[in-house]
């Protein structure tokens, strides 16, 4: 039986770890949050008292943490000193390319195999085991990465060497942030024009305005039952996380000398929504800002 250590059991990691357990793997799970740990235990994982305890005899370590600094410190201080050298290390968090390459470098220097494998799909896909994974790793390690990831995935694509998974993720989420704002602007305008936003959804989802932000994650409550808009924008993908990703894209663009003006505008709008108190809401709640409402 494959032994997995799973670190970070939040909105995404909780569902992902549960799918590893459902696939019959032994999952030693750890999170700083006792509530998250308890939920994981209810989903068939074995709670550990620390990262060190979770990874001590793991065949694969999967991390799903908030941001680059968390990933750097968890690997440097806890995973690398305590995991067996044979363990395959897979970080699924969305972080900056430099941090991913730095952690990969440290891991490889100590004899580990490492992959950056950020995901796309949101919490519903994390629970359903239908995430898309974009992987940066040595080519020789990819088949094993794919096998470990399989219970959580509908598509696993190798983007290239270390850091390439994060580069793909940052570009993808810049599209997502921009498209969500576009969909929200259109829904708010439809409302102002006296057009029922749900009727607009029905029309645009079958017209050239169709996109994932509209048809899989509709920010207007009703048309897509699984979307966070139907539960007060709780859970899902927090505005603060989207803001983090848009900042990563702008920093990467500045370093690479690339122009990303719509990404910059999206970052500005999400920063404003965050400052108004919307940081903990799902990122589709930016609809409220564009309708002229303060976050609830
Ligand atoms: P989250 O805040 O819900 O979960 C992160 C978890 O990590 C928390 O439970 C926290 O307690 C835990 N944690 C933090 N530091 C820790 C440590 N040192 N040791 C152990 N646990 C620690 O965030 P999330 O929404 O699950 O997102 C996780 C990552 O996935 C982020 O990088 C995010 O950008 C990315 N992501 C999120 C979504 C989404 O829809 N939520 C989609 C794709 C990618």
Could you describe the 3D structure shown?
Residues 3-157 form the 6-phosphogluconate dehydrogenase NADP-binding domain. Helices cover 50% and strands 14% of the residues. By secondary structure, the chain is of the alpha/beta class. It has two domains: 3-161, Rossmann fold (3-Layer(aba) Sandwich), CATH 3.40.50; 167-290, N-(1-d-carboxylethyl)-l-norvaline Dehydrogenase, domain 2 (Orthogonal Bundle), CATH 1.10.1040.10. The termini are far apart. The structure holds nicotinamide-adenine-dinucleotide. Residues 7-13, 30-33, 36, 51, 64-66, 70, 74, 93-94, 119, 122-123, 236-237, 241 line the site of nicotinamide-adenine-dinucleotide.
The CATH topology of the largest domain is: Rossmann fold
Which structural class matches the secondary elements?
A: alpha/beta
Domain count: 2
Q: Distance between the terminal alpha carbons, to the nearest Å? A: 47 Å
Number of helices: 13
Give the overall form. Answer: globular
Give helix and strand order, one letter per element, not per position: EHEHEHEHEHEEHEHEHHHHHH
Question: Quick recap of the structure?
Answer:
By secondary structure, the protein is α/β, with parallel strands linked by helices.
List descriptors.
6-stranded parallel sheet; alpha/beta; NAD; binds nicotinamide-adenine-dinucleotide; single chain; 9 strands; HIBADH; 2 domains; N-(1-d-carboxylethyl)-l-norvaline Dehydrogenase, domain 2; 3-stranded mixed sheet; 3-hydroxyisobutyrate dehydrogenase; Rossmann fold; EC 1.1.1.31; 296 residues
